[in-house]
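Data availability (excerpt). The following record was deposited with the supplementary files.
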Amino acid sequence: MAVTSRDVARLAGVSQPTVSRALRGDVRISAATQAKVAQAARALGYVPSELGRSLRTRTTRQIAMVADLANQIYPALVPALHDALGDAGFRLVVLAERLERPELSSVLPRLLDRSSDGVVLTTALLHSTLPAELDRHGVPFVLLNRTSDVVDADSVTVDNAGGAAQVGELLAGLGHRRIAAVFGPPTTSTGRDREQGFRNALARSGIALDPALVHHGEFAHGTGEAAARAILATRPLPTALFCANDNIAIGALAELYRAGVAVPGVMSVVGFDDLEVASWPWVDLTTVASPLATMARDAVRLLLDRVSDVDARREPRHVMHPANPVLRSSHAAPAS
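Predicted structure:
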């Protein structure tokens, strides 16, 4: 037979409601009683029923994260989200989503069934209807690392345009003039803003990107490989390559290595996000840092504010963190 809260109550010498209140840290229960109940629960191996608690409170204490696990930035966000939610007494559940799959057919029903109290959206496209559907159904959510053109909602981002502009200024300042770029999907705020910031910075230095050296694709390793192969077929070769995220940049580095192209001797390569792999000695990628852990904590704060007071129709809040270049060994002035 499963151990129940009534068993704990008998052992601790208190009432069953007191056990429930003590185990959830109710301030009306003295510290001594809470300790006595906790000791009894440990002795009996009692695990509180989340289902029962959810039925009583009509909350799940669970937050869903929609993420594309093929992109390394999202697994990098999970630990910080998990810890911040855990500190607030919530659990994190991850719903894997790929950009090439229709959002509404796979994710939306699982977000509207009330199995989660709120949602962290990390893969939203600019014109996706998913944020609007969540808003229409009264499901609290926050956009993390992305923004939406469909609905104005709480969001936490890095300064994508500003960070990419700093890359453009860096490369132009070193003397690069023939520059290639692999941008992300223009259907995403990250792809759009990083491309715009980079182009604007080069334009201020009188540099225009050759269309033959510009590629777009998913924020994936394979995008960088394919783009690098195409760029290597051009003549003259560009002296620098900006990649809209580190996944793309590492794919490009792999292709350049296979082709025997020295980095940065022949071609400088710069990424964006500063994922852990970018700092590995055999990668040592110059990039732009996104403060992912801080962004995740901010997203939890905004979301839990909504969850705790969903009827307060306050204006959406937007948190944008500065983007800081991280200078490593994959960039240099062009060879004379």
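Summary of structural features: The chain has three domains: 5-48, 61-158+292-321, 160-290.
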